[in-house]
Amino acid sequence: MALARVASPGPAGRHGSLAWPLLLGYTALVVYASLFPFEGWRDQGVAPWAFLSAPWPRYWTRFDVIANLLGYVPLGLLVTVAVARSGWPRAAAVAGTVAPALLALGLEAAQTYLPQRVPSQLDALLNASGALLGAVMAHILLRQGVLGSWGAFRARWQQPGGHWAWLVLLVWPLAVLYPTPVPFGTGQFWPRLEAALLRMFEGSALQGWLPPAQVSAPPRPLGEALLVALSLALPVLLGYASVRTLGQRVAFALLFGLVAWGSGGLSAALSFGPDKAWAWLTPQAQLGLVAAAGVALLALPLPSRVAALLAVLCGGWVLGQLNRVPDPAYLGEWLQSWEQGRFSRFHGLGQWLGWLWPWAALAAAARLALRPSGGAYNRRP
Q1: How many CB atoms lie under 10 A from the CB of residue 31?
Q2: Which of 125, 237, 248, 299 is the most exposed place for a label (fewest CB within 10 A)?
Q3: Partners of 243 in the beta sheet?
């Protein structure tokens, strides 16, 4: 195969490929989405492979077809790249097709024991087709040298100790998909935690020890714009603290702006429908975007340690303010498509990512800010 032309990486390259951790993380996501809600397991008197000979599904939706096809494209791509980077380029494309297909068959078989899920040979076929597409894409990219050495790329771009920051930033687009009262406002967990604690200890001796529920006013337009701006400034500053040069910061800011714009539109489209993809662009959100762009521009020349410290301060302030924002009246209706509709399988994962992401970002920024003095880390980019 043409992949044989790709030079086998040395020992360092074999252990430093980002493809493996990304593959493990994405595989966990696929398993979660396929077996959610993980309850009600029982033998229904049907063989786990019976779906292979069952009639083709009579009803299907365009969303299901697209999701099952595209959901396995990254899996095929990552398996192919990971195997090629591990020194087996000849087997990479085959592994990128066969391994995800076997995983799809196994998950469909496991769904036989979940009353809320219906296994389908059409889903497995679409999954395998998506994996094949991803493997072909990886084959072409590897052959053309587009996917260069990860170690060389890190040496050119990443600050020492910046790998955790990069991992956190890679998760950000998923963390902001779950609906929130303020666009991009991840980390708002207190209203739901407070309500859960009150329900849990209602009527018990501990009820009197709980603080009374606080009723906060919604933020004013300027306050909401500021929250949007600083919610975006946190990942921007974290990115600035983790790359080496001014040009790399500019490239990161431009790429992040596109990702943020697309993530906001995708979140609204998933919740309200494609025709409402830009409903989140209220005047407050637009002002926040402009302010975030201004912060990104002004922070370009800052030393890396200063950028990391500002990320810590920014993230701490945003978390404190966001957890005082009450849930708007329409939020319950907004969440129906996630909690009860077609995205119910992603509901728990999306919520937890949204809650935990800013804390992970704060930890990554603090780690960079507390790096030992010396070297190029304290200099301006």
Answers
A1: 15
A2: 125
A3: 158
CA distances from residue 174 to 102, 353, 356 in whole angstroms, order as listed:
26, 7, 12
| CA-atom Rg of the chain in angstroms | 23
Q: Could you report the per-residue pLDDT of 272-291, keeping only the tens digit for each?
A: 666 677 888 899 999 999 99
pLDDT tens track for 8-48: 444 334 444 678 888 988 898 788 778 866 777 888 888 88
Encode burial over 346-356: b for 16+ CB neighbours within 10 A, e otherwise.
bbbbbbebbbe
What is the rounded distance in angstroms from the CA atom of residue 141 to the CA atom of residue 311?
35
Query: pLDDT (tens digit, 9 = 90+) per residue, 53-72?
Result: 888 777 777 767 887 888 89
User: Number of C-alpha atoms within 13 angstroms, CB side, residue 2?
Assistant: 10
Its pTM surpasses 0.85 = no
Beta bridge partners of 158: 243
The structure tokens listed for 6 are 């790709």
Structure tokens at 82: 């990971």
Query: Helix crossing, 221-242 with 283-298: angle to 10°?
Result: 30
- Tokens 């996501």 -> residue: 29
Q: Which residue has the higher pLDDT, 208 or 75?
A: 75
Report how far residue 248's alpha carbon sits from residue 219's, in angstroms, rounded to the nearest whole number.
35
| Closest C-alpha among 142, 114, 151, 121 to residue 10 | 151
Which range has the worst mean pLDDT, 36-40, 304-308, 354-358, 366-370? Answer: 36-40
